[in-house]
Amino acid sequence: MGEVPPLTKLHEKYRDKGFAFFIVYVREAHPGENFPHHGSFEQKLAHARQLRDLERVKIPILIDDLKGAAHVAYGLLPNMIYLIDRDRTVVYKSDWTDAHELEGMCESLVRLDDMKARQVPIIRKGVSERLHWIPMDPQHRERIYRRSGEKAIRDYFNARGHLPYATDAERDKT
Amino acid sequence: MTHRTQIEDYNYSVFVGSEEFMAFRTLLPVGSSAADFEAKLLETGQRVQFSDYWKKGDVLIEFGSLT
Question: How far away is chain A from the Cα of B2, in angstroms, using its nearest Cα?
């Protein structure tokens, strides 16, 4: 999954401002010798515990069922993120965690509460769509794949034709 | 498709890179109502309903796994 520390910082900043943060534990995106695909719910639970302990995750973890009901309903990507407001509305979604952008979204909801409290008239709910570029830490990515095992790296290479922790420049060479 | 096959298809043993980005982009667009689901809370082992959380406040969920 994406890097936990930036999300943890946001969790600490916003949990007292009416936000609840969760990690939804889903299938292994890159199963390897050390952490193979899930064959039982107990195994999935054990992997989630290991994630919590290895990455010192402070954010509560929800375990999806073995068929991935929640994962399927939200779009099946391995590191996607959603922000849902108290009216059940999806106010933000991203295919990868971008802590900088997320902080802006959380601030936007805090601002909305403030506007409502001050009875500031709101013209409309605006919708925007954008591409954003998220920096990659190759060392972090390599650590995650090595944790899963050589098989995970091999499978990724077979699927994509480059190592999972290759930088843009390295990919261009292949 | 049988229950067992569904589970095996979802929990693939080999990554082949067939992530469906278009499905993500079209499902639950911004402005739509979030999907409810049941899950187990790791901390307590209790089964919880996701909707119970958004009724109390804004909720952020990140999907992920060890690998």
Answer: 11
